[in-house]
Amino acid sequence: MVKTTRKPVARTTSRSPRARRTAPVIRTADRRRATVRTVRQRRRAKATSALQVSMMVLVVSMLVSFVFSSILGNSMLEKTRRERIAAQNRTRVAQTEVNRLRRDLDELSSMESVDRWAMSAGMVLTGSGISRPTVPPVLNAEVPTVASR
User: Of 58, 80, 85, 126, which has the fewest CB atoms closer than 10 Å, so is most exposed?
Assistant: First the structure.
C-alpha cells in the first residue's frame, strides 16, 4: 500500500487560499509488490484486450453479414418483382389472344357463315322451296402437266 503525506508549502505574504496549500509527497512502500501488481494488471489488460478484439471481430462479422444479406435480399426481391411483371404481361397477351380466337370461333360457327360456306362449296339447301343455282362441275378439264426431264 502506498502512503501519502503532505508537507506545507512555503508561506507567502498574501492571505489567499492558495498560499496555504500543501504539496503531496509519495512514498512507495514495497518495490516488489508494485511490480507484481503491474504484472497482474498487464495480464488482466491482455485478457481484456483479447476479449475486446474478439468481440469487435464478432460485431464486424455480424454487420458485414447483415449488410450482405440485406443487399442480396433486396436484389432477389427486385428480380422476383420483374418476373411477376413479365408474367402479368404474358397473361394479358394470352388473354387477348383467347378473346380473339373466341370471336373468330363464334363468327365461324354462326348460321350466316355456315350458309356462306355451303354456297361457296356448291351445296343447295333442300327442304325449302327455294332452289339456288349451282355451278356445274367441269368434266374432262385438262389438267396442266409439268414438264419433267
Answer: 126
Q: Do 8 and 22 touch, CB atoms closer than 8 A?
A: yes
CA dihedral 71, 74, 78, 80 (to 10 degrees): 120
Band the pLDDT of 121: cuts 50, 70, 90.
confident
Parse the chain into domains and list their residue ranges: 30-120
Q: Judge whether 117 and 130 are in contact, CB under 8 Å.
A: no
Return phi, psi of residue 121, to 5°.
-90, 0
Closest Cα to residue 105, out of 117, 113, 94?
113
> Which run of H or of E encompasses 133?
none
Give the pTM.
Answer: 0.43
In the 8-state DSSP scheme, what is residue 28?
A: -
Q: CB–CB of 1/29 below 8 Å?
A: yes
| DSSP class per residue in 50-74 | HHHHHHHHHHHHHHHHHHHHHHHHH
